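@channel anyone free to eyeball this complex?
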Amino acid sequence: MLETTWFVLWGVLWALYFMLDGFDIGVGMLSSFVARDEKELRAVYRSIGPFWDGNEVWLITAGGVTFAAFPAAYAVLFSAFYSPLMLILFGLIMRGVSLELRGKVESDLSRRFWDVCLVFGSFIPALLFGVAFANIFKGIPIDNEGLFHGGMVTILHPYGLAGGFLFVALFLMHGALWLSIKVHGNVGLRAEGVAQKMWYVVLFFAIGFLALSFKETSLFGNYVKSPALFVILLVTLCALFGAKIYMYKGIWWKAWWGSAVTIMGTTLFGVVGLYPSLLPSSLDRSYSLTIYNASSSPLTLKIMLAVALIFVPVVLLYQIWAYRVFRGKISEESLDYENRY
Amino acid sequence: MDVLLLSRLQFAVATYFHFLFVPLTLGLSLLLAVMETMYVRTGNHEYKAMAKFWGKLFLINFVIGIVTGITLEFQFGTNWSRYSRYVGDVFGPLLAIEATVAFFLESTFVAVWAFGWEKLSRRMHAVSIWLVAIAANTSAVWILIANSWMQSPVGFVMKNGKPVLDNLVTVITQKYAALTIMHTLGSAYILTGFFVMGISAYHILRRRDLSFFLKSFRLALVFALIFSIFEIVEGHLHGVNLASKQPAKLASMESHWSTESHAPIYLFLIPDPDNERNKVEIGPVPGALSIMAYHRPNTVVKGLKDIPKSERPPVIATFIAFRLMVTLGGFFFLLTIIGWFRRHTLESSPLFLKTIIYAMPLPYIACALGWTVTEVGRQPWIVYGLMKTADAASPISTIQVSVSLVAFTIIYTFLGITAFYLIAKYARRGPESSLNTEKGGAGNA
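replying in thread with the prediction:
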C-alpha cells in the first residue's frame, strides 16, 4: 500500500513537473521564432522570468523522490540514461543562465548567443524527457543486476522518438498558449497562431503515440484489467479537445488549462500502465524494477510521506500566490528598463 | 583512466565549481535581508539602493549556483549508481527533504523578490528576501546533514547488506552534522563579508558613493569579524570531534605517523608518505596535538602507521589543504580585527583597503581547501567505514564519462568566466544606475 502510494505520488510529481516546466520550456523553444525585435524578445523572456526557476524545482523534487522512495530504480535509470541525462542537464544549465543573464549583457552578440542557448537548451530537454519516458514505458535492456545493455542509440527507436516528438509538440503548444495569455501585441498574436497549428501536431503525435504504445508496450494491460482506468485517457482527450474549443473561442487561459491537463494526463496514462513496474526490462520481464524490489524501507517511505503531505500543499499554496502576484499581461513600461534593479 | 577516476574528477569539478557560488548565496541573502529590513524600518532610500546594488550581484551569483546544483543531484544516479542503490534508504530522503522544504521556497521567493519591487508592499518585499535567506540556509543544513551521514554514518541498521534507516532524528541531530553545518555556514558568512568589504573598499578608495559603501563595508565587517572568531572556536571543536570519528583524517591533517601520547604539532613539516615519516620536522609544540584532539597532553593520538595502508587518505593533499585553510582562517581573523579598529577611519587607510580588495579570493580558496580536507581526508571511504569509493561508481563506459567530463569542464569554465565578468562589471559600475532610477521616480520591471 505504502509502495503504491509512493508510486502514485512519483507519477504525479513528474506529471506536475512536465505541466509546469512544460510551458516555460515551450516558450523557450518558441522565443526567437515568435519575437522579431529586441522589445518583443524581452517580453518573451519576461513572460517566464519569474516562474521558470520555481517550476524547475519540481524536477529536482521528482528526482529526489525517485532517489528516496525507489533508490534502485533511481540508480539504474539515471546510469542507464547517462548520455541523454547529461544532455538534458547541459540544456537546462544553458537555458537557466540565459533566462537570468541575458538581461544583464549589453552587446548584441552576447544577446544572440543567449537567445540561441535558450532555444536549444529548451528543445533538448523537451525532446529527451519524452524519449526517456517512452523508454521507461516500453522497458530497456537491463539484466537481473540492473546493468544496462545498450547505449544512446538503443533508446532512439521509433517509439522513443514518438515520445520525444509528442513532448516537444505538447510543450510548444503549452508555451504558445502561455505567451497568448501573457504578452500583448504581435508576439501574442503569433503565439495564438502557433498554438492553433500545434494543436493538430499534438493530435497527430498523440494518436501515433497511443497506437505505438498499443503495439510496442504492455501499457494497456492494466487498462484492460480495470477498464475504469480508461477515464484517464478520456479526461486527457477531453482536455485536448477542450483546449481546441477554447482556442477557437479565444479564451486563452482556459485553453492553457486544457493543455496543462493534457500533459499531466499523457504522463499519468503511461505511469498507470506501468504499474507496478518502475522500469520494465526488455530482456526478461522478471528483471524489471518494480515498486516492490526497488523501494526503500517502510520507515523511509512513511517519513517521506509525512514530509510530502505537509510540505507539498504548502509549496502549492505559495507558488499559486506567486503566480497571482505576477498575473495579467506584461505591461509595456515594465520592459523599458534595461535593468530590473 | 578508468570510470572511477573520471567520475571522481567529474564530481570534483562539479562540487568545487558549485561551491564557488553557494557561500555567497548563503551569506549575501542574509545581508540583503538586513539591508532591506533597515529600509523598511527607516525609510532611508540608501538602504533600498544597497539592497538593489548588492542584490544584482547576488542574482548573477545565484543563478550559477542553481543550475550547477542540479548537476549534483543527477550525478549521484548517473555516476554513482552503486552508491545510490546502497545508501538510498538513508541518503535519498535527506535530498528529497532538502528540495521539498528549501529549494521551492528559495526559488519561488527569489523570483518574487527580483521581479516584485513594484508589485509588493515594502514589508512583503522584505519578507521575500528573508524567506530566500532562510530557505538557502535551510537547504545548506539538509545537504550538510546528508554529507555528514557519509562522513559519520549513524541512525541505521544493516539489512540485506545495506544500511536501512532506523532513526531519522539521530541522523539529523548528530554532533558531527551540527559541527559541519556551523563550520560551513561560518565560512560562507566570512566569504560574504570579504566579498562585500572588497567591493566596497574598491569604491571607497575612489571616493565614490562614500556613504553608501562605508555603510556596506561596516555591515560586512561586523559580519565577517563575528564569524572569523566563531570559526576558530568552532573549527577547534570540529577537530576534537574528528579525533574520535575519523582518526585517519586527523592523522593525515597533521601528517602524524606514530601512535603516541604527548603528540606534538610541528610548525613546519614535510610529509614523506612513502617512508611513513616526515622528511623535515621543525618547531615541535609538545603535546599540542594531544591537547587539540583530547584537551589533555597525555592522551594517545593514533598515528597513520597504525592505520592499514588501504584505509589511509592521501596524506599530502589533506595535510597541505588543512594547513593552508587554518592559516587563511587566522589571516581573516587578523584582517577583520584590524578592520574593527579602523572602522571609523577607513577612508584614510588605503593600504588596508587595498589589502581587503586583494583578500577577496582568499575565502573562496579557504572554502575549497576545507572541502578538500573533508572529502580527500575521508578517502578511501565514500561512506565512512561502510562503503569504499572504489565500489560506488556506476557501471558505465569510460567514453561516456570522458565526454561528459570534457563537456562539464568547457561549460563550467565558460560559466565561471561569464559570472566573474558580469559580477566585476556591475560591481565596478556602482549603485549610480539604481540611485538614478530612484531619483527619476521610475519604477522597476
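from a first look: The CA atoms of residues 76 and 146 of chain A lie 6 Å apart.
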